[in-house]
Write a structure and sequence with these properties.
Elements (H helix, E strand, L loop, with lengths): L7 E6 L5 E6 L4 E7 L5 E9 L19 E2 L5 E6 L4 E8 L4 E2 L3 E5 L7 E6 L5 E6 L4 E8 L4 E9 L11 E6 L5 E6 L10 E9 L6 E12 L1 E6 L5 E6 L4 E7 L5 E9 L7 H4 L8
Antiparallel strand pairs: 1-2, 2-3, 3-4, 5-6, 6-7, 7-8, 7-9, 10-11, 11-12, 12-13, 14-15, 15-16, 16-17, 18-19, 19-20, 20-21
Length: 283
């Protein structure tokens, strides 16, 4: 099925499994589709295109919807837009298997940071974004009654003594809700990619604020994505330019440790090389 826009980069189902949401990075649009009883993708039920730009002339000439995330109660859809430094909020219409008009976006970090990925804490009181160009994490308090976000903290995902350029890429929260994980992949357009890093934060359960616990190498070059396995015991990091997935154990204190297992996987993520050429990229 056509995705409703250019450069689809992320998709998710609502919690009933009846609606599919798609973020189209290339033209900054968001689309919803009905899922039929046999699991097939049905008609497009809504499409909305973000408008505007931000301060980075190379990356933010226009909108770039980067992810689609459903709220814990399945009432709202959150869409971080890298091109606009904002997170847009839509009301989900379960009857029509659609989304209603967006609300004005809330700030997804400082201007030029480029909000990229988004996740809710396990209790639904707080939410978190990782910014790609800003290599930072943003904590929000979340009002479930009206689906609103209020920024309460911005914190770097880099070492304190880091002086170069780097980019955030992924964000995950462990099933206990006590620890948050982010990744940084290396600077945009680097012809000699550096080792990626995974940063571990402790989440204050009362305030939602983050405290940096650990920064560990990702086991390869240009980590674009990682996941926590369902048991909560392992983290698997996809290192694009190393063509590998590195396996880490997760300790009781939330910190990760590398195992000896590294699995060869060809380019395990969407390439940043296409991001910089998104206007003409056809892949």
């Amino acid at each position: 099925m056509p995705a409703g826009g250019r450069g689809p980069t992320h998709l998710t189902l609502d919690k009933t499994g009846k609606i599919l949401f798609v973020a189209n990075y290339g033209d900054g649009s968001v689309a919803s589709f009905a899922i039929e009883d046999d699991g097939s993708i049905g008609a497009m039920t809504a499409m909305d295109k973000h408008q505007g730009s931000s301060v980075n002339p190379a990356r933010q000439k226009g909108p770039h919807a980067h992810a689609v995330v459903v709220s814990p109660d399945n009432r709202f859809l959150f869409v971080p837009d890298l091109g606009l430094d904002k997170i847009f909020i839509y009301k989900i219409d379960l009857t029509k298997r659609s989304i209603n008009a967006q609300r004005p976006g809330v700030c997804g970090g400082k201007t030029g940071a480029g909000a990229a990925a988004f996740a809710f804490g396990v209790d639904g009181k707080f939410a978190y974004a990782v910014c790609e160009m800003g290599a930072s994490a943003v904590a929000f308090s979340y009002d479930a009654a009206n689906g609103s976000l209020t920024s309460i903290q911005t914190i770097s995902i880099l070492p304190a003594d880091f002086t170069g350029e780097d980019q955030g890429s992924e964000i995950q929260i462990d099933r206990s809700g006590r620890y948050l994980y982010t990744s940084n992949q290396g600077p945009e357009g680097n012809s000699d990619p550096v080792d990626g890093r995974i940063t571990v934060f402790q989440i204050d359960g009362k305030t939602g604020l983050l405290k940096q616990l650990q920064i560990a190498l990702s086991g390869g070059k240009l980590v674009r994505n990682f996941v926590l396995d369902p048991s909560g015991k392992y983290l698997l990091a996809g290192n694009l330019d190393s063509n590998s997935v590195a396996v880490f154990t997760i300790g009781n204190n939330g910190e990760i440790a590398p195992t000896k297992q590294v699995v060869e996987v060809g380019s395990p993520a969407f390439s940043w090389k296409c991001h910089s050429e998104i206007e003409t990229c056809k892949s």
